[in-house]
Write a structure and sequence with these properties.
Helix content of chain A: under 10%
Largest sheet of chain A: 6 strands, mixed
Distance between the termini of chain A: 38 Å
Number of strands of chain B: 11
Strand content of chain A: over 45%
Number of helices of chain A: 0
Largest interface: A-B, 22 and 26 residues
Structural class of chain B: mainly beta
Strand content of chain B: over 45%
Number of helices of chain B: 0
Number of strands of chain A: 11
Shape of chain A: globular
Largest sheet of chain B: 7 strands, mixed
Radius of gyration of chain B: 13 Å
Oligomer: heterodimer
Order of helices and strands of chain A: EEEEEEEEEEE
Radius of gyration of chain A: 14 Å
C-alpha cells in the first residue's frame, strides 16, 4: 500500500517557466511533509518542508502548498533552471508516532528543465 | 550545516564477505539515524531506524542478523552487511535527524555496494 504517491514519473519544463510537482497521500495521520531533490548515485538533498498547520511555505524559488482536505501537496519551482533537473521525492511523517518517526517516501518525479 | 557523510562511497566485495558502511553527522548530533536502500528507478526503502545507545528497529522483511546496525555515538552509525550475496548489491543511504526535535532528515551521499 503506497501511502505517498507521486503519479507523474517525469516532467519536462522550459527554462524560466514554472515547474509544478505533485504528491498525494492517503494517511490522515501525516502532519509533516518534506521535499527532497536527488541526483543519480547521490543522497537526497533536503529542499523544503511544511507542517500541517500551514498551507504554504516559501523559500526562494521553492514554494510548497498543502491541501489537507484533498491530502495533496505540491512543490512549485519558479523560475526553473537547468540545474534543477533531478528526481524529486516528497516524503511524509506523523510526529505523533514518537521520537523515531519515519519518513514515508513517494516514488519520485524526474524533472527535466530544458534550456 | 547539517552535513552527513558516508564511507565508503563505493565498495566491491566477494560473495560471503562482510562489508561495513559508516554514517557520520559532521556538524550536529544525531539522536536518530536511518538506513535506506534504493533499487534502480525505485523509491528509498527504509531498512531500519537506530537510536544512539539502543538497539535498532528493523522494518518488516529486513533481516536484523544480516544487516547489523550499531549507533555507538551521537555522530556515528554503522551498517554491516554480513555474508554478502549478489542480491545485496544496491545503493545504501543513511540519514540523520538532530536532537532539536525537527522532523527533517539529512542524507548522506550513499554507498554503492556490488557483490560479485
Amino acid at each position: 500500500d503506497q501511502q505517498v504517491k507521486q503519479n507523474s514519473p517525469s516532467l519536462s519544463v522550459q527554462e524560466g517557466r514554472i515547474s509544478i510537482l505533485n504528491c498525494d497521500y492517503t494517511n490522515s495521520m501525516f502532519d509533516y511533509f518534506l521535499w527532497y531533490k536527488k541526483y543519480p548515485a547521490e543522497g537526497p538533498t533536503f529542499l523544503i518542508s511544511i507542517s500541517s498547520i500551514k498551507d504554504k511555505n516559501e523559500d526562494g524559488r521553492f514554494t510548497v502548498f498543502l491541501n489537507k482536505s484533498a491530502k495533496h501537496l505540491s512543490l512549485h519551482i519558479v523560475p526553473s533552471q537547468p540545474g534543477d533537473s533531478a528526481v524529486y521525492f516528497c516524503a511524509a511523517s506523523s510526529r505523533g508516532g514518537g521520537a523515531t518517526n519515519k519518513l514515508i517516501f513517494g516514488t519520485g518525479t524526474l524533472l527535466a528543465v530544458q534550456p | 550545516g547539517a552535513v552527513v557523510s558516508q564511507h565508503p562511497s563505493r565498495v566491491i566485495c566477494k560473495s560471503g564477505t562482510s562489508v561495513k558502511i559508516e554514517c557520520r553527522s559532521l556538524d550536529f548530533q544525531a539522536t536518530t539515524m536511518f538506513w535506506y536502500r534504493q533499487f534502480p528507478k525505485q523509491s528509498l526503502m527504509l531498512m531500519a531506524t537506530s537510536n544512539e545507545g539502543s538497539k535498532a528497529t528493523y522494518e518488516q522483511g529486513v533481516e536484523k542478523d544480516k544487516f547489523l546496525i550499531n549507533h555507538a555515538s551521537l555522530t556515528l552509525s554503522t551498517l554491516t552487511v554480513t555474508s554478502a550475496h549478489p542480491e545485496d548489491s544496491s545503493f545504501y543511504i543513511c540519514s540523520a535527524r538532530g536532537t532539536s526535535g525537527t522532523e527533517t532528515q539529512y542524507f548522506g551521499p550513499g554507498t554503492r555496494l556490488l557483490v560479485l
